Structures are given as C-alpha cells and as structure tokens.
Amino acid sequence: MAIKLKINGQEQPVDAAPGTPLLWVLRDHLKMTGTKFGCGVAQCGACTVHIDGTPTRSCVLPHDSLEGAEITTIEGIEGRAAEAIREVWIEDNVPQCGYCQSGQIMAATALIAENANPSDAEIDAAMTNLCRCATYMSIRRAIKKAASKV
Ligand code: FES
Ligand code: FES
After folding, report:
1. Cα 68 to ligand 2 centre (Å)
2. pLDDT tens string 17-46
3. Which of 20, 29, 107, 150 is deepest in the core (most CB within 10 A)?
4. What is the CATH number of the domain that holds 58?
5. Can you tell me which atom of ligand 2 is nearest the CA of 97?
6. Domain end: 43, 72, 101, which one?
7. What is the pTM (predicted TM-score) of this model?
C-alpha cells in the first residue's frame, strides 16, 4: 500500500514493500541517487540523510516508519550552513573520489547548523562517516572554515 513521505519539502507517494530501507526508496523508487550505498549496516555513513534535521543513516531505516517526518537528502539541502559547506568543499577541493562526500556533507551541515564554532573533538564526535580516500583532515579544516561563514 502506498504511503506518503515528505522529502525535500514535497509529499511523495511511495509504494514499496514494508520495511524497505529509506535508502532504496530514494535510489530505486524515486531515482534520487545522490544518497549513496556503502556498507548497508549503518557503519560508513555514505547513506546519511537528515530526518527532522538530524543526520541519520538511511540504509537501515524502514521507510514506513517515517510518515510525518521531514526527510532531507543531498538533493534538497539548503540554508546558510549548507551553502557555506558547499562553497568551502569546492574552494578547498575536499573530495577525492567523491563517493562518501554526500554523506559527509549531510553530517557536516547538520553540525555547523547547530554549532558555529566546533572544536576538533566536537567535529570528531559528529563526523563518524568513513572515507576510503582519507579526506578526514581536509574535512575537519573545511568544517571550521565553513562554520566561520555561517
Ligand atoms: S550504507 Fe548506510 S551506513 Fe553505510
Ligand atoms: S572521497 Fe573517496 S571515499 Fe571519501
């Protein structure tokens, strides 16, 4: 039975098997492929979206638990924190292969929207996403630079 999900501010009818993770609803049903599959077991963060503003791993999140929630993906993220992250990510060439970066950007945006001057420890605590290209130090520098612009 179809349910309605609110994704990037728009109601979307979704007809997927009960329990289907949000990641696969986004990618396979709605063709929103900016959110990536990495591990599938809530470890790597490649699939991070915002649920009511909180970074959340969508690969283990049943879509049918989300009626009434505000779901934001990399395609719909907006606001000053997101703009600052986008600007700095480009200026400072943060991505390497890029595969993990939509998840990194979702986590980083939520962090600086809440905390305009994050310490190294706060960045490390918030940024648990994995990067096989080891862009961790670039990400930390970029978060500090972006936070100073918000
Ligand atoms: S794919 Fe979801 S955390 Fe790795
Ligand atoms: S930039 Fe390649 S996995 Fe992170």
Report:
1. 33
2. 999 999 999 999 999 999 999 999 999 999
3. 107
4. 3.10.20.30
5. 2
6. 72
7. 0.97
